[in-house]
Amino acid sequence: MKYTNIFKYLIASAALVFTGCEDLEEKPVGLLAPESIFKSTTDVETSIFGAYGLIATESLYGRQYVSALMLRSDMVDIGDRGTPAERQQVNDFNMDDNNGMLIKFWPYWYRVISAANASIAGAESLGLSEAEVNPLIAEARFIRAFSYFHLVQLFGDIPYVDYFVTNPSAVKEISKTPEATVYSGIIADLEYAKQWLPDHQPASVRARATKGTAGAYLASVHLTRQDYAQAYTEAKWVIDNKDRFGYGLVDDFQTLFKAPQANDLKEHIFHIDFLGLQNGSSGANDDIMPPMTGVRGADAPRSGWSVLVPSMKVYNDWDSRDYRKKVSFVDSIMIGGVMKPYTDFPNTPRPHIAKYAEYAGNSNTEGRYSDQNYSAFRYAEVLLIAAEALAETSGATAEAVGYVNQIRARARNWAGTTTTFPENVPTGLSKADFINLVMDERRLELAFEYKRWFDIKRRKLGDVAFKGVNSTEIHENFDANRDYLMPLPSVELQVNPNLAPQNPGY
């Protein structure tokens, strides 16, 4: 009997975490019992660490998933057109349901989810007090919410499994769950996490979730759902408790993108931790974003493949007085021992993304296997969520404007030298103008950090972002009736017809 990729990972969640078993196409495991696998809270914690580790893999934050988000946005284009067609399809809005990137990251998210479900069931099977197990359950539920939040934004209705699978027959005909129901599950998980997670993890490491992490993601989920009052409430709670959680803006924007970053960097609310020059099976700890964004033909250790490269308009439209532009781009580099401007870059003569390749830290000659702590959520984003959500309910209030001004004040610190740009937000803006300003501030502040596509989708900005002479990356074939969602993988639909219908237009 053949099973879907989702099914393989769901029925083998515990085995995958503890043994790394993957060959499950024709050999599904038998009935699993949590009490036979989990004997102590240490076992549960090991399973949770395994789930975190699955996020830091080539299929997800190491390349495939995050590359797809970048290419889907209006901030990143294909550089070297000799790159595999699967990337060009995602970028050019002509992907199909057999896209190579899609079929790699889709099942891997379910692998993370299965590990989280195993951890929850394992903790519950121990029969210990709430104080002993609920923080671990909360951490696993955060990971599950994190995974489903990424999936539901790309695909809409998706299979939603929130239990440890002990009987293969229980999920062999799994069907899709409505998007609204998936979001309800995400919110419930995050609220539980906010209740039971600690204020700080050991050594205040930001690669594990805390109460503050859960609150920040609740703000983001409610913003995505256009529940602006609740988004503001959650963001304001994080802001009001920033000292309790140790949050704040770092003084120098460059610090955020200079590996190795501190594990307790105060601006990081949640980060994905890669370990320099280490890797394992199935793409474990394989960070390929530095070479994907690096300059092909440049001298080591900053050479790369020129795959993910912004259009010239993205670079030209960004005011050069903004320190964040300097940090975000590399527009000159050593080639053959000589400093060359971007006009002389081989293959793709455009400025490249610097956030990941410029300071990859302990890595190979192309920046691969870096020791970056990739920010999945920064305190700056909490401020921007609060500003946007408050503006939606109350207009451009002094409080909302103040949140943006905090970010602009940091941007005026040019590596220790105070400048005058960007200026504070002008007073008297209309609600619409201020929200547009916040969206552009997000575009610049969070440039190349995997956020822009989700902003385009939730604000339905596709026709503005991709059509007409004012767009930064022209794709006149963008279709709002199709392209706000990606297709479900064809292999899943072929094996399990219950997942039909396919998303519109594919």
TrEMBL record:
CDD domains: SusD. The keyword Repeat does not apply. Residues 351-506 form the RagB/SusD domain. GO terms for cellular component: cell outer membrane. Signal peptide: none annotated. Residues 88-223 form the SusD-like N-terminal domain. Keywords: Cell outer membrane, Membrane, Signal. It comes from the Bacteria. SUPFAM superfamilies: TPR-like. InterPro entries: SusD-like_N (IPR033985), SusD_RagB_dom (IPR012944), TPR-like_helical_dom_sf (IPR011990). It is found in: Cell outer membrane. Its main location: membrane. Belongs to the SusD family. This is Putative outer membrane starch-binding protein. It comes from Dyadobacter jejuensis.
